[in-house]
């Protein structure tokens, strides 16, 4: 007859039970042994793959008490539906299901106009809400130094600014250089207008037309493409409607927006 020894471990020395959490796509956890923090992008038999904010992937075993979720020890388990793969936001980030918008930070991102703001919202809106970043638009950048001074950026309220046509020797570059606060970052793309930051192929054209100097750029583009020139707002809706994800945008814009988000959400921010 098999003999069983009683468990004489005092109750206070026994490990406390921890919750089992399904490794759903987008769930953000930390592996305490390495300090790697990332979102679940794949869960297969015995392993889970995490992706950090820089796009780096790490595979970890599904071990009991193996992860931290919001600072608490948990056991990740395979979801009952079997293997999972994360979906993506329009910006290419891992989508976080049912994520709540974070309370808005004191910091902000300013863009030049309404079209810029609408494009940023369409591609990065999900990410911005999770990070608590608000995007506001200016009417041009001529008064940018005064606007920055009035905002009074600081360690807990960083300011990022996206400028159109930021090329050496331009008026915009001289204005950007006049902003000297270490808590403000001014970056830009080389295009005359944010319309050009949308890939021509996505809009269904071969290339963006060249508009003679001195002519209203948007009106010139519409005329050259045979679009109605009485309402450039209607043309913009056509362009914006062709954007489905970051893949429809030029890298010169993608990199700058990502840079601003990182700056505003850095540990020096709110």
From TrEMBL:
Region named Disordered: 1-25
Occurrences of domain DUF3097 (ranges): 20-79, 108-265
Pfam families per UniProt: DUF3097_C (PF11296), DUF3097_N (PF22845)
Top-level taxonomic group: Bacteria
Coiled coil segments of this chain: none
Record-given protein name: DUF3097 domain-containing protein
Organism encoding this protein: Streptomyces acidicola
